[in-house]
Specification:
426 residues; mainly beta; Porin; 16-stranded antiparallel barrel; 19 strands; 3% helix; globular
Length: 426
C-alpha cells in the first residue's frame, strides 16, 4: 500500500524537479546542463533524462507529466461502457547539491486500474516514487541511496506515459512483475563508452518482497501484491536484502541489450530471532532490447522476464512456482513534418504483442498442462505534435484462460475494445 503525502509536502515539491529518453526523439528534448558520467543516454539514464525547467539561477529544476484516457472494453460480451480515466500526474525535482552530488525526486498521483491489479491496486493516491542522492566518484563508480527504482528490465525505469504509443502499460511488466517497483536502499552504478559502444552496470541492495506474493486474496503467486505492504519502506519481512543487478551493452547502430536479475528471501522465516519457517527465495531474470532502424526510423522495444518462486510444499497448483511473460512494440512513423505550428510533428503506426503465463508447467497429479495465461495484440495510431506530447488511439484484442483452460467468465475470455489517450510532459 502506498502512503499518502500531506498536502504541504505536495505543494513544496511542486515548486521544485528535472529531465528522460526512450521512444521519443531525445535530440529534440530540452535537456539539462548537468554533466553526466557519459555522453549518450542509456535506459538506466531514463529516470534522469527528462525535460525540465530551470528556476532562474537556482540549482533546482522542475518538470512532470500527465496521463488521461478513455476506454470502451468488453470481456466475454460484457461491458461497463465508456470509462474516462485520469491515471497519472507526476512532478519531478532535481537539484545539484554540489559538484558530483545530485538529488532527484518524483511524486506521483496514480489511479491506474490496469497497472497494479488485485491487492496491489490501492486507489487514487499521491506517492513518493523516487527520491535518491547520487555521488559521482568516477564514470565507472557512482554511489546512490534513498528510495530507488530497482533496475529490473527496462520498463521499470523507463515507464513515463509520454514515451509510449499505448495507453496501457505492458501486462507482464505491471501484472506479473510489479511496475514502478521501488524500494529503500543503496547501490552503485557506472558507465563507460568507446567509440560506438557503451557499457553500463547497476547493482543495489534494497528492501524487497514479502509473504503477500503468495498470501493474497487473488489465490495465486502475484509479485505486485508486495506493493500493498504499508511498511516495506521501513522494514523487511525476511530481514534480508533484495539483490538487483543489471548490465547493459549499447551500440549506436545496433541498439541496447540489457540483462538483469532480482533475488530475495521473501517470507517471514523468523520472529524475534527464533526461526519459524524455512527460507523461501524468489529469483527473476529479465532480458530487454531496444533499437531503431535508422533507414526507416522503425523503433523496436521488447522485454521478457522469467520468475521462479520457492513455494511451501502444501500449496495448491494455483500458486505458480514459474512465471513467464513479456511484450514487443514496433513503432513506424509514416509522416514527419510540419502540422499547423508544430515543425516536428509525427504520425505513427504501432503494434504491441504481449504474452503472460502465471503458471508455467503441468499439474503434478495428472500431467496435464496448466494455463492461467494471456495473450494480446494491440494496434495503434499515434500523433505527436512534439516529441513531448502524444495522442494515441488503440484497439486491444486479448484472450485469457484460467488455470484449466476455460475462456468464459467475467474476468477471462476474449477482451476487445478501443482506447484513446493523451499524455504529455510539461
Amino acid at each position: 500500500m502506498k502512503k499518502y503525502l500531506p498536502l504541504s509536502i505536495i505543494i513544496v515539491i511542486s515548486f521544485l524537479s528535472l529531465s528522460v529518453d526512450a521512444q521519443i526523439d531525445s535530440s529534440l528534448l530540452k535537456t539539462s546542463e548537468r554533466k553526466d558520467t557519459v555522453n549518450r543516454p542509456m535506459t538506466m539514464d531514463a529516470i534522469y533524462n527528462r525535460p525540465f525547467l530551470n528556476i532562474g539561477k537556482s540549482p533546482v529544476s522542475i518538470g512532470g507529466y500527465i496521463e488521461a484516457d478513455w476506454q470502451y472494453m468488453a470481456t466475454s460480451g460484457i461491458t461497463v461502457g465508456n470509462q474516462f480515466q485520469f491515471r497519472r500526474f507526476s512532478l519531478f525535482v532535481a537539484s545539484t547539491i554540489s559538484k558530483r552530488i545530485k538529488f532527484l525526486g518524483e511524486i506521483e498521483y496514480e489511479n491506474d486500474p490496469t497497472g497494479e491489479a488485485g491487492e496491489a491496486s490501492t486507489g487514487a493516491q499521491f506517492t513518493v516514487e523516487y527520491a535518491a542522492v547520487n555521488i559521482e566518484l568516477h564514470p565507472l563508480l557512482n554511489l546512490s541511496g534513498g528510495m530507488i527504482l530497482n533496475p529490473i528490465g527496462a520498463f521499470n525505469q523507463n515507464h513515463d506515459g509520454p514515451k509510449w504509443e499505448f495507453t496501457d502499460r505492458p501486462i507482464a511488466m505491471s501484472q506479473m512483475l510489479p511496475d514502478t517497483w521501488n524500494n529503500a536502499g543503496f547501490g552503485v552504478f557506472g558507465k563507460q563508452y568507446f567509440k560506438h559502444w557503451m557499457f553500463g552496470y547497476e547493482f543495489y541492495l534494497t528492501g524487497g518482497f514479502n509473504d503477500s506474493i503468495i498470501d493474497n486474496s487473488l489465490g495465486k503467486t502475484f509479485l505486485p501484491s508486495a506493493k500493498s505492504n504499508p511498511n516495506r519502506f521501513t522494514s523487511s519481512a525476511s530481514g534480508e536484502p533484495l539483490y538487483t543487478g543489471k548490465i547493459s551493452l549499447s551500440h549506436d547502430k545496433i541498439g541496447e541489450l540489457g540483462l538483469s536479475f532480482m533475488s530475495n528471501v521473501y517470507n517471514t522465516w523468523r520472529i524475534e530471532g527464533a526461526p519459524i519457517d524455512n527460507k523461501r527465495n524468489l529469483f527473476v531474470f529479465d532480458v530487454d532490447y531496444n533499437t531503431t532502424v535508422h533507414k526507416t526510423h522503425t523503433s523496436i522495444t521488447t522485454e521478457w522476464a522469467w520468475i521462479f518462486v520457492k513455494l511451501p510444499p502444501d500449496y495448491s497448483p494455483e500458486f505458480g512456482n514459474k512465471q513467464f511473460g513479456g511484450f514487443i512494440d514496433v513503432v513506424q512513423p509514416f509522416y514527419r513534418g510540419k502540422v499547423l505550428d508544430w515543425n516536428h510533428a509525427t504520425f505513427n503506426f504501432a503494434i504491441r504483442a504481449e504474452y503472460v503465463d502465471w503458471n508455467v508447467g503441468n499439474f503434478t497429479s495428472t500431467g496435464t498442462k496448466m494455463y492461467n495465461q494471456l495473450w494480446s495484440i494491440m494496434p495503434a495510431i499515434s500523433f505527436r505534435p512534439t516529441p513531448l506530447t502524444v495522442l494515441r488511439f488503440n484497439y486491444r484484442y486479448q484472450n485469457q484462460k484460467d488455470i484449466v483452460g476455460n475462456t468464459i467468465g467475467a474476468t477471462i475470455g476474449t477482451t476487445a475494445g478501443f482506447s484513446f489517450g493523451l499524455s504529455t510532459y510539461f
